Each structure stands twice: as structure tokens, then as C-alpha cells.
Amino acid sequence: MNRATLAALAVVTLTLPPLLPDRHLATYVLLGLAATVTAGVSLLMGYAGQVTLGQAAFYAIGGYAAGLLTVHGAPTVAGLLAAPLVAAGAAVLLGAPLLRLRGHHLAFATLALQLILLSLLGRGDWAGGAIGLQGIPQLPVGGDLGYAYLVWTVVAVVLLVSHNIVDSRVGRGLRAVATSETAAAASGVAVGRYRLAVFALSAAFAGLAGGIYAFYLGYLAPGSFPVLLSIEFVVMAVVGGLGTTTGPLVGATVIVLLVQALNTLGTQPGMPGYAPGVLSYAVYGLLLVATVLYLPRGIVPTLTRRPPGGTS
Amino acid sequence: MSDFIGYLLTGLGIGAGYALVASGLVAIHRVTRVVNFAQGAFAVVAAMLTASLLSAGLPHGLAELTGVLTAALAGLFVGVIAIGRPGTTPGTSLIVTLGLGVSAYAVEIVIWGDQPRSFAGLPGVAVVAGARIQAHYLLILAVTGAVLGALAVFFARTDTGRALTACASNPYAARVVGIDVRRMGLLAFALGGALGGLAGVLTTPVQQVTFDSDVTLIVNGFAAAVLGGLTRPAVALAGGLLLGVAQTMLAGYGAGAYQLEAALVLLLGVMVVQAARRGPVPEAAR
Predict the structure, then answer these.
(1) Reported pTM
(2) Of A248, A282, B93, B107, whose CA is between 20 and 30 Å from A66?
């Protein structure tokens, strides 16, 4: 993406929030959060070449870290800083044994991690149990408009970090890992450490988004982080294009807007009560299948026709 | 002691369901190298359809058979989309089956709604060695045993079964001797669908089914199948039974709340140990 497009995008992003009605402003905030998490998924799937089906677990860990700290009296800024750190720490601890796994084994392992976490949160009284954690304070950013700017600043930072990693020496090493681990290892890339670092970084992105989510809603429950949410992030990453900097942003935008539009359609009078749910399941499922089969590199690489950044 | 026998038989009955899901995963993975994420959805579709047919007045047996055959068709359908296009890698196919599994939610909710469903199984209580258990558990065990036995004979003694095994051990050589590997892959998917469907219709009378039951089923089925490296049906059967018994024992002797965690931690442990033993990971097929 060239500088002019990038600048135009930044200007639109910054001028949009005050113009949006409240209902759409909320969507805008949640879209930014989804894009942040998806950026991590895209790094992990595009560069470590692995399917993760548990990214919402790190989103939840970040949210609960921020929520629990502030509910017990810590300042909100501390909670916001703790969210990515705790999530990354958890990723390092869990990733050390689990990243020996590849392909479908890792996919199921991450899914299992999330199910275990949800079950523990649902039963843990210290986390509010199934009812959830209530009364999380607001960040002092001045209401929804402030959150919108905060979230999109985070999106910009996350995309910048992704971009720099992709273009750096480390990024070239990662791309080598995604193409052939044996060849990468033979050329002196510390495969295990690189994979763990990407895993931790993607978890930090998810944790940071989770922390903001906790402050924004003021309430967390295990039910806010279903397995389907993890799958949504994968859908966004795949649709946008794995291993590209702007792919997560495009993927998240396309999916969130589409689901929002169908949601509006589904809640029209005369539509059955299950319509919004059904429509969103259909969108996630069918878009994933159609993209993987007919647009295997995703929207961004197909449109820009650059060589794929690691997946082939 | 009679408690123990009761838990054991109940656990075997529940484990038989996991074993059937696992066998379906293994049947598909052996031939196509694809891990079918939609495997749990077959069980849900078969169970929901059977519940509808039974309440519409169809007799037992016929309704269950229709459910299982429909699941086999669903399996074929998933297979056509997942491996139908030449050049689809197993990794891509996994994501396709994941997408189809999520799409299945939409279809299931439109047809059957989002409430749990169940139907009556074999009525009555059986007394085995002093333990009282629902008779239906014995039916589950008998049917699972018969079906998996028949399957073993099918793989070992029939031409089609041998062709499937040939594709599993060496697709290239199979193609050379004139076996249509793609058609065998689709057959494996249909077989996987039928096995998943059977798991659904057998276990629904003792545990309700909802549209999203597939996640638990697929995770437990995968845990069972992974013990045998996703290629050995007999180990998958043993794994499923072991998992079912372990969960029921945990539930029976106190730590009931943590049975899901126990199964998942077992899954993670087995995979990590297997990965460590395999040593350097072979290059993933892509």
C-alpha cells in the first residue's frame, strides 16, 4: 500500500468517529478491537504457518487481567498495561510445550486451551463465575468518542509493529520458517524461539484488545469469549489475507460490516427471532469456505498482486 | 463394587460415542490426510433428524437408520467441497471443514431451532453384577461393537476396503494400480459421516444434543483418535472407551465438575509427548 492511500485511510479513520451516530460508534470501536486481534492471528497463521483456534482465550486473559486488577482497586492505566503483558506471559508459558505441535494438532490444542479457560472462568468465584465480572471502571478517555480514538490508535500501533516485524531480519526468518522449517533451521534461524516470540506477540495484541474491551463494556463473562469468536478471528485473517499488514484490517472491516448489515436485516420486523444468529453463522462459514477455495491468498494480496508474504 | 461396575458400563457407553466419532475421523484422515472438523456436526444432524422423525411417528430403527444415512450423505457433501478441487492441501481442507461446520449451525437452527433435543432410547434398567444402569448403555455398546467389528471385516476382506487401506498407506502406489484415490477419499468421507451420525443417534437418548454439541464431540473424538496418531482405528476405539470411562469415574468419584478439563489435559499431554517422541517434525504437507 502506498503512502497516499495510507494517509487517506488515516484521515478517514480520524474524521469518522464524531460523524457516527452512537449505535455505529460502538460498531466502530468493536471493529478496531477485532482488527487488533486479527493482526496477531494473521502474523501467527501467515508467518508461523499455523491455524490457531483459541485466540479468543488470550483476548479473554487480557480482559480478565485488566478487569480483575481494576476491580480490586488498581488504577485503570495499570490494568491496561497489564492486559497485553499477562496475555503474552501466558502465551510463553503455554506455548513452550504446545508449540512443538504442528498443523491440526496445534489447532486442536489451542481450541482445548480455550475450552479449559472458559470452564475454569465459569467455575472460578474469583472471576465472578458464570455470571461474570461486574463493575469494571471506565478508562478516563471521555466516553465512546475517546474509546474510538484510543482503539484506532492501538490499531495503528499494532499494524506498524506488524509491518516492521514483517520487513525486518526477524520477519525474513519467520517467512523462511513458514515456507520450510528445515531450510530455515539449516540457515541458522532459531525456529523454536521465533515461533514462541510470534505466539507471544499475537497474544499480546489479543490481550491489549481484551483489556480495552473490558473497560469499554465494564463487564466480562465467560460467555463473551465463545469458541466461535476464535473462529471469527481466523475468518477475518483468512479473508483479509494472511501474512499481509493491511489484510487483518480489511478482513475485519469486511466481516464486521457484513455481519452488522445482516444483523440489521435480521432484526427487521417479520423476521424470525433466530435470523441474526443464523445469518452470521452462515456468513462466517460460507465466507471462510469460499475464500479458502477461490481466493486462497485473501482479499489484500489478490487486489495488490504482490508476491504472497510467506504462505504459498 | 457395584458402583464401580455401574460407572464402568456407563463410561464405556459414553466412550463408545467418542470412539465412533474418533473412528470417523480416522477413516477420513487415513485416506485423505484431512482432519474433518465437521465430524461432530454429522452426529448433531443425525440426532436432530431422528428426533424429528420419531416425533412424526416413524418407528424406532427406521428413524435412526434414516438419520445415519443422511449423515453419510452430509459426509459425502463435505468431502466433495473439502477435497473435490484438485490441489487442495490437507491444511486448506481442515479450514474448509471448519467453515462447513460453522455453516451447519445456520442450517440446524433454521430447521430444528436452538433448543436441546432428545428422544427415548431403549427403556428400562438392566442389572449387571449388582449394578443398575440404563439398558440403553448396553444397546450403545452392542451396536458400536457390531459396527466396528463389521468395519474391520470390511477393511480386511473386501476389495473396496482393501482399496481404502491401499490409499491410506500409499496414495501414489494406489493410483498406479488403478485405484481412484479421489473416489476413495469421498467414500471415506461418507463412511465418516455415517460413523458420526451413528454416534449421534446412539448417545442422544442418554445425553441431549444441541446445535453446538459438536464442539465437545469433536474435541473428545479427536482426543481419542490422536492416541493412535489418527491412523489406527483400533487405538481410536480404545482411546474413546478409555476417555469415556475416565470421565465417568471422575464424575462418579467426586471431581465431576472437572471431567471436561481432565479429557482436554489428557489430549494436550498425549499430543505433546507424541511430538517430543517424534523428534524433529517432518515438513508439513502443503
Answers:
(1) 0.88
(2) A248
